[in-house]
Design goal:
Blueprint: E1 3-7, H1 11-15, E2 25-29, H2 35-41, E3 46-49, E4 68-71, H3 81-86, E5 90-92, H4 99-114, H5 117-124, H6 129-138, E6 148-152, H7 156-167, E7 171-175, H8 182-188, E8 191-192, H9 195-201, E9 204-207, H10 221-224, E10 232-235, H11 244-252, E11 258-261, H12 280-283, E12 286-288, H13 297-315
Parallel strand pairs: 1-2, 1-3, 3-4, 4-5, 6-7, 6-9, 7-8, 9-10, 10-11, 11-12
Helix pairs in contact: 4-7, 5-6
Length: 325
């Protein structure tokens, strides 16, 4: 008997990355969650779910035969894992698969802002070589060496990103709800500090948290007001953790040097989002990308292989990896 799998991402995502599901699976693919997929989910054994997309109501699963929801990514906020546990439905993600991808994204964009690459590229193409050179030198250009790099959330991705910044010569400071192992901190020459201290001393502050009740709007006006005027804020984890209205005001008032955002409260980002409507003078220090920090050929190949392997192990009675509930 073939197991029935509903996959809410197109087959092309897998084939383009050289990954095929095991032959014991009968897989039906959808481009995204919709009414047609709901009907088939009712009778499926497993749901394969992209980490990015709309939240799915738990009611969809109440009378279904689903035993496992496998997320092809780290974030699992599209479903309520606690309510699904009560329905005896396992929820798994894949952690650490895109750690290097996210780390490179954070490093690259931090350097771009510290060296004013965005405005330099724009103005040199307008024939303003001398003007832009003078301008960005006057605004101060920084290298990573010796800067305070602070990380909020030190799971597999946050820890990897911190390691990258350490290799570039940054002083590393960590904030996490758990006490971090001394061996980890010692390897990075790092110190664990409070959230308030992060915002007071950070030259670069990088967020690596899940979105939940305790992290929603965690970064607000009060925290932003503590930041150095030359500091950079990076969020490549989940939208909703930063209050976007408060961040837009901080940027507008030049309270901080700049921001790098790969994630937003609403995705796709809405046209009236204040971060899209900043003056050009402010936009030069803001980098916005469409939730692609962890997307590389290598990371997707690993994510997809791990996802299918986890599903196969589960249906064959073997222990699950990455269980979140």
């Amino acid at each position: 008997v073939k197991f029935k799998i509903v996959c809410l991402r197109p087959k092309k995502d897998f084939t383009d990355n050289g990954v095929k599901p095991p032959s014991i699976f009968d897989v039906i693919y959808f481009e995204k969650f919709n009414a047609n997929s709901v009907k088939l989910i009712q009778n499926a054994d497993v749901l394969i779910l992209p980490a990015v997309g709309e939240v799915i109501d738990t009611k969809v699963f109440e009378k279904s035969s689903i035993k496992l929801i496998q997320v092809t990514g780290a974030g699992f906020d599209r479903v309520d894992e606690k309510k699904l546990r009560k329905l005896n439905i396992n929820v798994c993600n894949v952690t650490g698969a895109n750690s290097n991808s996210v780390a490179e994204y954070c490093i690259g964009n931090a350097i771009s802002l510290l060296r004013s690459i965005k405005i330099a590229d724009k103005l040199i193409n307008l024939g303003k070589f001398s003007e832009v050179r003078k301008q960005i030198i006057e605004e101060d250009l920084f290298e990573l060496q010796g800067l305070n790099a602070c990380f909020i959330g030190l799971g597999p991705i946050g820890a990897c990103v911190a390691g990258y910044f350490h290799k570039f010569g940054c002083k590393i400071f960590c904030n996490d709800i758990k006490s971090l192992q001394k061996s980890f901190l010692n390897n990075l020459g790092a110190k664990q500090i409070t959230l308030e201290e992060v915002f007071k001393i950070g030259d670069i502050i990088s967020i690596h948290l899940p979105l939940n009740h305790s992290t929603k709007n965690l970064i607000n006006r009060q925290k932003l007001n503590l930041m150095k005027s030359n500091a950079i804020l990076i969020n490549a984890s989940r939208g909703g953790i930063i209050n976007e209205n408060d961040l837009a005001k901080a940027l507008l008032n030049k309270k901080i040097r700049g921001a790098v955002l790969d994630v937003f409260k609403d995705e796709p980002i809405k046209k009236n989002n204040p971060l899209l409507n900043l003056p050009e003078e402010i936009k030069k220090a803001v980098i916005l990308t469409p939730h692609i920090a962890g997307v590389t050929k290598q990371s997707w190949n690993y994510l997809f292989k791990e996802s299918w392997q986890n599903v196969e192990n589960f249906l064959n009675g073997k222990p699950l990896k990455y269980l979140v509930n």
